[in-house]
Amino acid sequence: MTAGTAAREEAAAILQRAARGRRTCKPVRDIIGADDVDAAYDVQQRIVADRIDLGATVVGRKIGLTSAAVQEQLGVDQPDFGVLFADMNMTGVEQIPFDGLLQPKAEAEIAFVLDRDLDGDDFSIATVYSAVKYAVAALEIVDSRITGWDLAIADTVADNASCGLFVLGDIPLSLNRFRPHEVEMTMYVDSYAVSCGSGENCLGDPLNALAWLARTAAEHGDPLRSGQLVLSGALGPMVTIAPGMTVRAELGPLGEVTAVFSERPVQ
Question: Where does the record place the Fumarylacetoacetase-like C-terminal domain (predicted)?
Fold first, then answer.
């Protein structure tokens, strides 16, 4: 049975209170159904609409759960997507404040910036390839409002695909200069290699992930638009981060991307 309006509103309210209070909350799957992805996206849309009403600016989307390693880490078996806001962008920030994070994890991926809308009915690889202006290395700091990352697919979808923050590299490359599925990734924490992978770990090719998102976003009535940023999904396992850490990822021709996290202030 599909969750009704009252259940969806209740789930959205629980997640919103957690985000605003900077505290974790119980899973919402018992309210909307652990496998009811449509209800979960409706909850996500309610939360996104509320943020927009409060003045937040949408800058793109993120694709989550594209890596088999990450799916195994979280116990889910399909990708999802969330909405990126301007205040999630930590590019150029000398030290990322840790206070606003709850239980963050880092993952390295390829980000795409779109040069045109993807709002038709053709979401082939050739079509999405031609829509990409350039790609850039990215670190995504995923963060769940659900206590202990105790997730079913409905939990993470409702929670805006566990969006947190992101940092972009500084080498934009057009797709005619490299092949996303061939990119090799190594991620380091404080100079120690902690995660390795490649573009092939992202649904076989990050462009496959982009095509999936373009089609799915259009089906939900909110297609991808020119100028938007798309985080295409992890190239390897995500890693838990703590205050004071420095996270750096190397992504072949896309170069490096680094995030430095502040020490948590003494209480």
Answer: 102-259
Could you give the CA distance from residue 27 to residue 24 in angstroms, rounded to a whole number? 9
Domains in the chain: how many in total?
1
**Is residue 240 one of the residues assigned to a domain?**
yes
**Which amino acid, 79?**
P
At 134-163, the pLDDT tens digits run: 999 999 999 999 999 998 899 999 999 999
Domain that holds residue 186: 3-260
* 267 within some domain: no
Q: Give the total residue count for the chain.
A: 267
End-to-end C-alpha distance for the chain, whole angstroms: 47
CA gap 252, 200 in Å, rounded: 14
CA pair distance 185, 196, nearest whole angstrom: 6
pTM for the whole thing? 0.93
